[in-house]
Amino acid sequence: MRHTELKDFWERRLESDWTESGVGYKQLGRAFNSYMYLVRGEVFRREVGRLGLDLAAAKVLDVGSGTGFYLRQWRALGARSITGADLTKAAVERLSARFPDSEILQLDLADPGDLIEPGSYDAVSAMDMLFHITDDERYRAALRTLGRATKPGGVLVLSENFLHRPEQRGDHQVNHTLPWITTALGEAGFDVVRRAPMLVLMNAQVDANPVWRKLWGGFLRGVTLTEATGRVAGALLSPVERRLVRVVRESPTTELMICRRR
Description:
Layout: H1 3-16, H2 20-23, H3 29-49, E1 59-63, H4 69-76, E2 81-86, H5 89-98, E3 103-106, E4 121-126, H6 136-149, E5 150-160, E6 168-169, E7 174-175, H7 178-187, E8 190-197, H8 210-223, H9 227-247, E9 255-261
Parallel strand pairs: 1-2, 1-4, 2-3, 4-5
Antiparallel strand pairs: 5-9, 6-7, 8-9
């Protein structure tokens, strides 16, 4: 899809469903997505907490803020100065009402104009959104924007699928390879610090054997046919998932990456 078509797609989607399912794996329903986000939040707080940042004094930028989930994670970690940003008017209007103490920008990350002052943020997050930039040059431009926004020595926290298998391209999402992403990050001025699983079983197995991916995907869709069954499935799987994200080194789905601005 062209950028304008993607923007319209997300505008309609978030206007009609400003919940975890609207910004997450919609086919699995809101209840199951809520449990997925509980695990995501735990991993985010653990990994960012390990950095030892003075968040009470730091300026933080979160891009692709959606429903504000990661704005809440930064706040829980002690950040006081937090700016949110989203591509869509639907999200920005709701975020502004939900987070009146934060500045919320309507921002095209690949073409931000003068909305972001260069080198003004100590920490930046781009969670669960970069793989939705389906044009490769716009993806690189978005990373360059993040590089300009981050102070030298500052931190970028992002999530991606970091494929070891060949890249996968769709209308609304492109899953790039780990080498492609790390090269693009390097070109934008970032050095990779570490990478950690964010989910293991509770999301699409995009970097797994195709047979397993199809079987497990069918299982997840089957157990989330209704909100009631999705709630039960989420309650049963999330304790397993919380353990797995601590003990496995590589995930077949979404991972979190910490980078440092050179």
